[in-house]
Design brief:
With 154 residues, the protein is mainly alpha-helical. The protein is built from seven helices and two strands; from the N terminus they run H-H-E-E-H-H-H-H-H. It has a single domain, classed as Cytochrome Bc1 Complex, Chain D, domain 2 (Orthogonal Bundle). The N terminus and C terminus are likely disordered.
């Protein structure tokens, strides 16, 4: 019960966290998100499109490619070996919207445990990024991927 209350409190503490799920788009600052991504994420992650172009990051392979993460179901990168917690998130069809992403980044294990009800550990190292910073990273990543391309073609 305490964990569920903690997750609810985390989600409620970011008033703009639900903006993108209501059609308003990401509420964060993409430029600030790019800076945070370059400081905190590139050692493990890359944003690489279907044509193998690196759009952000370097050649991180520890974590999955983050291309198209916005709107994607958690744990859906083909061929990537996920933790059992992330596999449970995938089975539960947890989608990466601004709120879930902002709650996940600061402490992936706590988020996945609370969201799935499963026990275990995430393979992602806890980040020194608060919810506001995670929302900025989300805004940066929202510039890349299939979901954004589909919206542009509509």
């Amino acid at each position: 019960m305490i964990r569920k209350l903690t997750l609810a409190a985390a989600l409620l503490s970011a008033p703009m966290a639900f903006a993108d799920s209501h059609g308003a788009g990401p509420s964060g600052d993409a430029e600030a998100g790019e800076n945070l991504f370059n400081r905190n994420c590139v050692s493990c992650h890359v944003v690489r499109d279907a044509d193998d172009n690196v759009l952000a990051g370097r050649n991180g392979r520890t974590g999955p490619n983050l291309y198209g993460i916005v709107g994607a179901v958690a744990g859906s990168v083909e061929g990537f070996r996920y933790s059992s917690l992330m596999e449970a998130a995938h089975a539960a069809e947890i989608t990466w919207d601004e709120a879930s992403f902002a709650a996940y980044i600061p402490n992936a294990t706590a988020f996945l445990t609370e969201a799935t009800g499963e026990r275990g550990r995430s393979t992602m190292t806890p980040q020194r990024v608060d919810e506001e910073g995670a929302i900025d990273i989300y805004a940066f990543l929202a510039q890349f991927g299939a979901m954004m391309e589909e919206e542009a073609s509509d």
